[in-house]
Amino acid sequence: MITIDIYPNSYSINRHANYAEEGSDIVCAAVSATAQVTANILSNITETSVDAHKGSLSVQVHRQTIYTQFVLKAFTDAVRDLEGQYRENVQVEIHIG
To answer: How far is CA 49 from CA 39, 42, 57, 66, in A?
Structure first.
């Protein structure tokens, strides 16, 4: 199961969805694409650290703005939608404050 932890200024993704074999897992692909696009957008609008390793991704926003809040909210909504569709494969935890 993919675990996604979302904080006010960051998010991290770990593990594999196990929906299908590696390389043909549409759930993993959807989460990965959403996370990478979000990281790229954040990197283009503010100072952001991205740490990617096989099976994990961590993104930290160093200066939050209204734009970064909007992007992180859109990311949260997207992965919550995926969690709703693939409950056995995606778990989202939102950590406030």
So the answer is: 9, 9, 11, 18
Report CA-CA distances (Å) from 43 to 33, 47, 64: 15, 6, 12
Model-level pTM greater than 0.85? yes
Write the DSSP symbol of residue 87: T
- Judge whether 89 and 27 are in contact, CB under 8 Å: yes
Three-state DSSP at 8 gives coil
Q: What's the pLDDT tens digit per position in 59-70?
A: 999 999 999 999
Tokens of 14: 């770990």
- Whole-angstrom distance, CA of residue 84 vs CA of residue 36: 20
3-state secondary structure 26-76: HHHHHHHHHHHHHHHHHHHHCCEEEEEECCEEEEEECCCCHHHHHHHHHHH
- Length of the chain as a residue count: 97
Tens of pLDDT along 32-41? 999 999 999 9
